[in-house]
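Aggregate trends can hide what the representation actually does to any particular protein. The sequence in question and its structure tokens are set out directly beneath this paragraph.
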Amino acid sequence: MSSTLYSKVVRRGKRFHALLCYDETVRALLETLEKGGEEVRLAQAIDPGRLPAHIAIIMDGNGRWARRRSLPRVAGHPAGMRPVRTAIETCGQLGIEALTLYAFSAENWKRPKAEVEMLWRLLRSYLRSELPDLIRQGVRLTVIGRLEALPGQVRADLAEALRKTSQNNGLQVNLAINYSGRAELVDAVKALVKDAQDAARRGKEIEIDEAAIADRLYTAGSPDPDLLIRTSGEMRVSNFLLWQIAYAELYVTDTLWPDFTRADLLRAILDYQKRDRRFGGLGAHAPRPVPTGLRDTLAEAGVVENIVEPALVESLSVPTQ
């Protein structure tokens, strides 16, 4: 039996069910968790075959967190850095492809000047202190939004962080800064119009379809979010990734962002895995052919032809080996 595949076959009446766990996917995470704790229980419940490729998070509630502790509003922002670190580390260990964090919206400029300036100082401090760990974890950092409006020193620090992580091939972390979903669509349409005009001057034509717009979004090249998490209990998307979250599963928690833990993230992923993602179709996922690796494992376990039917394993999202 393959060392990366743990298989246990149990008999229920006259039928066998294969319970599979691709432990390589979660082993890196489990090794960092305290044995017997809630995080271990949650991590062990995750189906590695049904992880979201892209998670997006609206990190909300810093100000309320501070007020509940009779602290100045701005005190919530430094407290919100710990869950950023935890989310990046956990997503990387689970093999998530992309994580997008809503760090500063285009509307946030309306906040008091002192608070905005404090956010820029905090961002620069974060980049300086966390960059070595991001590089060690193989994180590739990108930034989405209208960056030309940011202070020069902030843009310089971001450019340096992007350059130093550009060759990494692990988790892609997209920081949404001075970001607006509507502005992104406007920018994409402007780029499409310009490209169409340039093509027309060369006697060519650009097909205008969904792909043409998606290719000109800030997130071009990344999968659309499968899971959108919002903290603080607010039931709105706040102008975030309006195009990309068309089919995302939404998960809202009352937990304020500074209190958001690894366990909260794992609960969100488990809740996502319970959803039936139909994408406008009918019913559950269509049965899949039984993967070769599963056939071999069942054969080694002494379970033969009567088990290897798609109907018996269609609920197991097992990647073909």
